[in-house]
Amino acid sequence: MTTRLIRSVVGLALTSAMLSILMFRLNSPIAAVFELSVCSGLISVIFVTTASFTSRITEERLEERKKERFVKFWLLPIIIVAVLVLMYFYTKPINFVSPAMPQETDVRHILWNKRHLDLLGQIAALLAAAVGVIVLFKEKK
Amino acid sequence: MSILILLPFISIIFLNFPSKTMTKKVAFWLAAFVALLQVAIVLKHLITHEGFIYDPIFAFFSYGFSIDLLTQVALLSIGIVSFVSLLVARVTISDESQKFNFINLVLIAILGMNVISMTRDLFSTYIFIEVTAISSFILIALTKDKFAVEGAFKYIMLSAIASVLILSSIGLLLLFSQGTSFANIYMALQTHGNEVLFKLGMGMFLCGLFIKCGLVPFHGWLPDAYSSSSAPVSVLLAGIITKASGVYVLLRLVISVFGGVVAVQNIIMLAGVVSIIIGALLSLTQTNFKRLLSYSSISQVGYIILAAGCATPLAILGAIFHFFNHAIFKSLLFVNAAAVEKRIGSVDIDKMGGLATKMPITGGTSVIAFLSTAGIPPLSGFWSKLIIVIALWKAGNTTYAGIALLASIITLGYLLYLQRKVFFGKLEAGLENVKEVEFGLLLPQVLLAAIIIVVGLTFPFILKWL
Questions:
Q1: A132, B176: Cβ pair inside 8 Å?
Q2: Domain around A126
Q3: What pTM was estimated for this model as a whole?
Q4: d(CA B245, CA B127)
């Protein structure tokens, strides 16, 4: 909702921290640690670093943006209220019982012993991101 | 077959960690070797009918690789289109750094698409769809001009929505299955297929894939991404990336997981036929060469999706062959567009005319590509469309078969219009000194045209052999 990038980043970090607390409460400590360290910590640092490369918005543009920002989303609250009303009247409660979970639930064992291919995928994604940073941000001499 | 995963990965490491001055010189040849080796390996498997050979490196990854006809066709298409894209890049990208970055990104995209084609696990498929998508975003924005960045931004936004839908659906499906492999999901479908949450998961996954495929009404990103990116990137995107990360996954899920569910089949067929009609009609109104081809892609992908939804063995065969044919003839059309853009400096078809006299090879190969796209015999596109229409008719989907046939007439119409405006008719003023493009751009055009003709003429024998 804010016009300032840094405030958005801080908001994102706080949301990730709250999500991390929820994950601890739901007995997923490893997911919670990842959420806190990566999403709340590392990604916020990356956003702040990237924002520091941008130039500050002028006061005139800021005022213009404040006036017009929400105008194009006028339909959104109406849609949300309509969906909530429809859900209240027409949806039935879902009585869901999950089938038995598999024996092995240790994330570390699954990650390192069973999902080698996904680790390769993560390395490939990091390489792609590194090339992307070079392509998009490196200035020619 | 694990070499198809490891070789692109090792190549990327090799190109970036030792001295870049040395590796920049060999980058193109290394990437071309990787693509051609892939084509050679797959052709060998197809010709010799070798089954899946035990591969210790596959065993290390401990699960879920398999090679069947669909995978082989996908891998073959990836190799051919990547090689053609590299050839186009060699001529059209003059900046050596940009060319080096392009080659790196193509190798990452090849890695991603190869794993998507070979894995039989839903979560791994998702991971490598993301790997391919990240490299695509950057490829589209490679030139960093305003329209390219805008096209990349639109693609990122819609792709992010697709990723959220796909990942959420995997979470929902995991509530019912013991794992994320296709076999696990299939077994969960048999026992819990009527559960609301399972149906929601399937629906969300399909929506995500429809966005990735660029099907109507989720096609908003596609024309901007294809038309605003540079020539070799357009070839790669239109030729294989959209197909490998969207269409292939949809085909694989229909074959291995959801294919027996009638509601899913109906939704897929409806999405296919709507894309065929809307894509063809929107192509009629375009004056930008690449945008016209983009909308044509939406229409042609619709044929593949329509056949996938029909889900009979004949329809799946038609879908697989149209997948390959579309990769080839669409790539050729985009290479023709690259050649014209290189000589004219524009893709506005109102500024073109009579170019066939000045660029005879480009014009000739363009005619072959357009005839194949329109399904004119004896070219390759005719056979795959014929199989799709017959399969639809035999399965009782006569309305869809009729619409597919009528849409072919619209396809013929807009491509004839394109040919007339660009290559035939009176030579436009200011184009008197235009010459044919150099060998570097002629080679991919002739190669792709030869594939279209050879596959078209020998298709009955290929079918018998397979």
A1: no
A2: 105-141
A3: 0.89
A4: 11
- Spatial separation of the C-alpha atoms in residues B81 and B86, rounded to whole Å: 9
Among A residues 70-109, those touching chain B with beta carbons less than 8 Å apart: 94, 96, 98-99, 102
- Claim to verify: residue A62 and residue A11 sit in the same structural domain: yes
Please check whether residues A83 and A113 belong to one and the same domain: no
How crowded is residue B192: how many other Cβ atoms within 10 Å of its Cβ? 16
Residue A95 lies in a domain: no
The answer as to whether A79 is a domain residue is: yes
- The interface predicted TM-score (ipTM) is 0.84
- Domain identity same for A10 and A47: yes
**Per-domain residue ranges of chain B:** 1-255, 259-466
Q: 3-state SS of chain A: helix, strand, coil percent to 5?
A: 75, 0, 25
Q: Is A65 domain-assigned?
A: yes
> One digit per residue, pLDDT tens: chain B, 466 residues?
678 888 898 898 888 876 667 677 788 999 999 999 999 988 888 877 665 555 655 555 555 677 788 999 999 999 999 999 999 999 998 888 889 999 999 999 999 999 999 988 899 999 999 999 999 999 999 888 888 888 899 999 999 999 999 999 999 998 888 788 898 899 888 888 888 888 889 999 999 999 999 998 899 889 988 988 999 999 999 999 999 999 999 999 988 888 778 888 999 999 999 999 999 999 988 888 999 999 999 999 999 999 999 989 999 999 999 999 999 999 999 999 999 999 888 888 888 888 888 889 999 999 999 999 998 988 999 999 999 999 999 998 899 999 999 999 999 998 998 888 888 888 877 778 888 888 889 999 999 999 999 999 998 888 777 6
Are A75 and A131 within one domain? Answer: no
Question: In B175-288, where does DSSP find H-type helix?
Answer: 182-192, 196-213, 221-228, 231-236, 242, 248-253, 262-284
Residues of chain A in contact with residue B197, where contact means CB-CB under 8 angstroms, are 94, 96
Q: Which two tokens stand for residue B203?
A: 């629906």
Question: What is d(CA A40, CA A49) in angstroms, rounded to the nearest whole number?
Answer: 14
Instruction: Write out chain A residues lying below 8 Å of B5, CB-based.
Output: 120
The count of domains in chain A is 2
* Co-location of A10 and A77 in the same domain: yes
Is A28 in a helix, a strand, or coil?
coil
**Domain for residue A96, yes or no?**
no
Cβ of A117 and B142 within 8 Å? no
Query: Is residue A79 domain-shared with residue A22, that is, in the same domain?
Result: yes
- Cα(B156)–Cα(B149) distance, integer angstroms: 10
Say if residue A78 is in the same domain as residue A137.
Answer: no
Residue of chain B whose alpha carbon sits nearest to that of A104: B178
